[in-house]
Design goal:
The complex is a heterodimer of chains A (about 350) and B (about 270).
Chain A: H1 2-9, E1 16-25, E2 34-44, E3 49-53, H2 60-67, E4 75-84, E5 88-89, H3 95-99, E6 106-109, H4 113-116, H5 123-135, H6 139-152, H7 158-161, H8 171-182, E7 189-193, H9 201-218, E8 221-226, H10 229-235, E9 238-243, E10 246-252, H11 253-258, H12 263-270, H13 310-314, E11 320-323, E12 326-328, H14 336-343
Parallel strand pairs in A: 3-8, 3-9, 6-7, 7-8
Antiparallel strand pairs in A: 1-2, 1-4, 4-5, 9-10, 10-12, 11-12
Chain B: H1 2-28, H2 61-97, H3 99-114, H4 117-127, H5 132-159, H6 162-169, H7 174-210, H8 222-230, H9 237-268
Helix pairs in contact in B: 1-2, 1-9, 2-3, 2-5, 2-7, 2-9, 3-5, 4-5, 5-7, 7-8, 7-9, 8-9
The chains are: A alpha/beta (about 350), B mainly alpha (about 270).
Chain lengths: ~350, ~270
């Protein structure tokens, strides 16, 4: 409803608008389903790069899969809404409807380029497949288009590359091919799930550069999912910190890095290795992420939080905006203590 | 190791090619009409006129063995086609749908697999009138489980592969996923199964015809010829030898070919 009001007044609608998304994991018998995502709200505006950062198992990949209706068996959307371009309710589309969005409007780049390309098909076949599927191009048109795409992502000798098979390419080249396939239909939104995790550091930088170029040339919005803060700092306008299926903090990259509000964010930032910390033990957050069935009523981070008070263990705080566009899910966010701690 | 691998493939290809050429030639030329009887020349030993001698009706064994190759290839090809079609349907459905669909279809094929092949073929052929078509249908149905298992296993393994998930994420539909993404990767396993089933089909056809339930006289079939030759085994052993050797050669050939292709695939991974 907020959407229609905005559309009426002419305010720009966000490209992707996720509101209070809940994803549940069905359990056998008559046990109640487990909550995987618990009220995730996020928006991605046109041309914007939004980062999602979090530890393994925090639900960031589930979030990206739920956008495209690709949730694994047993999981389903249990509430909330996912709007694309203000008009398309992705959360309640049938399989057939949402399929026309995949690859065309919203494309995905997966983590491991080594296994995301089909070993039995030539590069040409794999790039043209999407073009033929979504743009209805003929074999010849698609082939010419594929050459242009491969050139665009900086691959040498694209004509001969069409005949090559994935095993003949390096990891970086494969990820470039994946990006070429992802951007082949000029999607409005590119979801990149750990796009550089499996790559060498030098190749990482090149791939991030390529994504930046694509964002600038095509105006593509990017939802970047990673556990690497340096990638976030490098690429994103805004960032959301996820923990145990909830967003703990959201804000601009500058705000979040300079003045983190949530102790978890502060802890994550402290545990990034830097040259100054050489030869000193690296900071790490004690404990581990609670499993799905261990999530209690209180703040999800309370058990590991150095500042937790009694209230934290019994009551889960709301995500509250403390400054412009800077929100945190913490009772102590306003207090000085967390701040001073974070500044270390 | 490499030498052995090539050995299977080369020898299998050689045997199968020889039989294939014999079959092709027989379509246009046989030394004598295969069904022409000549009582005066019955049960002759091999000679220049009859390269492999004659049978109990004086028919030229060489010509009949050549035409018998047509039957063997026809039975092999048609029953493999039936098995592949059925197995593909069941295998992809079971592999992709999973859960109770998988359970139901796989238990059904298990039941089919539990029957001794020749017994089921006998049953299927004897409830209807014996003919070549019935034989092919029976053998085809019998080979469904092996195709279904191979294809299901392939689909099950491939559908979880990252590249199949990636293709799904890029908007590929089920048909696209199965035919474009999955099939090329399990094609070699299917070809191996097809080669092995081809030889089984030839063997079962020979057995059914030997029992008088397959190809009906006077059409030549290797199995029938063995049956006819049985009574004259002591007097004219070459009569039984010719079809026997060809059955062995074809079964061996297709088995070796299947093994060779499988080794080729294992090696390429």
């Amino acid at each position: 409803m907020r959407m229609t009001a905005e559309a009426a007044t002419g305010t720009e609608t966000p490209l992707l608008d996720i509101r209070d998304l809940r994803v549940q994991l069905r359990r056998g018998g008559d046990r109640s389903p487990l909550s995987v995502l618990d009220g995730v709200t996020l928006t991605v505006n046109r041309g914007e790069t939004v980062g999602i950062v979090g530890e393994s198992g925090c639900g960031k990949s589930v979030l990206s899969l739920s956008i495209l209706g690709l949730l694994p068996g047993g999981m389903r959307i249990g509430g909330g809404e996912i709007w694309y371009d203000g008009r398309h309710p992705l959360h309640r589309m049938s399989g057939r409807e949402i399929r026309s969005f995949r690859g065309k409007e919203i494309a995905m780049i997966f983590q491991d380029p080594m296994s995301s390309l089909n070993p039995g098909l030539s590069i040409g076949d794999q790039v043209t497949e999407t073009l033929r599927l979504h743009l209805g191009q003929s074999r010849r048109e698609a082939k010419e288009h594929a050459v242009r795409l491969l050139r665009k992502v900086g691959l040498p000798r694209p004509e001969s590359l069409l005949e090559a098979y994935p095993h003949q390419l390096s990891g970086g080249m494969r990820q470039r091919v994946m990006i070429a396939i992802a951007v082949s239909c000029n999607p409005g939104l590119l979801i990149a799930d750990e796009p550089t995790t499996a790559l060498d550091v030098t190749i990482q930088a090149q791939i991030l550069d390529l994504m930046r170029t694509i964002r600038e040339e095509d105006g593509t919005s990017i939802l970047l999912i990673t556990h690497d803060f340096s990638v976030i700092a490098d690429m994103c306008d805004r960032v959301l910190v996820m923990y145990a299926g909830q967003i703990l903090e959201s804000g601009t990259v500058d705000d979040l890095f300079e003045r983190p509000l949530h102790p978890y964010t502060a802890g994550l930032l402290r545990s990034i290795p830097t040259p100054e910390k050489k030869n000193r033990p690296l900071y790490s957050i004690e404990g581990r992420v609670p499993a799905l069935h261990e999530r209690g009523a209180g703040c999800r981070f309370a058990a590991r939080c150095p500042h937790a008070v009694e209230r934290c263990r019994t009551e889960n705080p709301e995500l509250v905006a403390y400054r412009d566009n800077h929100a945190a899910r913490c009772f102590l966010a306003e207090t000085e203590g967390v701040h001073r701690h974070a500044a270390v | 190791m490499r030498g052995m691998r090539n050995f299977s493939l080369v020898l299998g290809t050689l045997f199968v090619s020889i039989l294939f050429v014999i079959m092709l030639v027989s379509l246009f030329y046989t030394p004598h009409p295969p069904n022409e009887m000549n009582v005066r020349e019955r049960l002759q030993a091999p000679s220049a006129r009859h390269l492999l001698g004659t049978d109990n009706f004086g028919r030229d064994v060489f010509s009949r063995v050549m035409v018998g190759a047509q039957t063997a290839f026809q039975v092999g090809a048609v029953s493999v086609a039936i098995g592949l079609a059925g197995g593909f349907l069941i295998g992809t459905l079971a592999g992709y749908a999973g859960r109770w669909v998988d359970e139901l279809l796989m238990r059904a094929t298990d039941a089919l697999l539990a029957f001794p092949g020749i017994l089921l073929a006998l049953l299927l052929v004897s409830v209807t009138k014996p003919s070549l078509f019935q034989t092919m249908l029976a053998i085809g149905i019998l080979s469904i489980p092996s195709f279904a298992r191979v294809i299901r296993a392939g689909v099950l393994q491939q559908k979880e592969a990252d590249y199949v998930k990636a293709a799904r994420g890029l908007g590929a539909g089920y048909a696209n996923l199965i035919f474009v993404q999955i099939m090329p990767n399990i094609a070699s396993a299917i070809v191996t199964t097809a080669a092995l089933n081809f030889s089984t089909a030839i063997l079962i056809e020979a057995a059914l015809s030997y029992l008088g339930l397959g190809v009906q006289p006077p059409d030549p079939s290797w199995g029938r010829m063995l049956n006819e030759a049985q009574s004259y085994l002591a007097k004219s052993p070459w009569f039984a030898l010719a079809p026997g050797v060809l059955i062995t050669l074809s079964v061996l050939g297709f088995n070796l070919l299947g093994d060779g292709i499988r080794d080729l695939r294992d090696n390429s991974i």
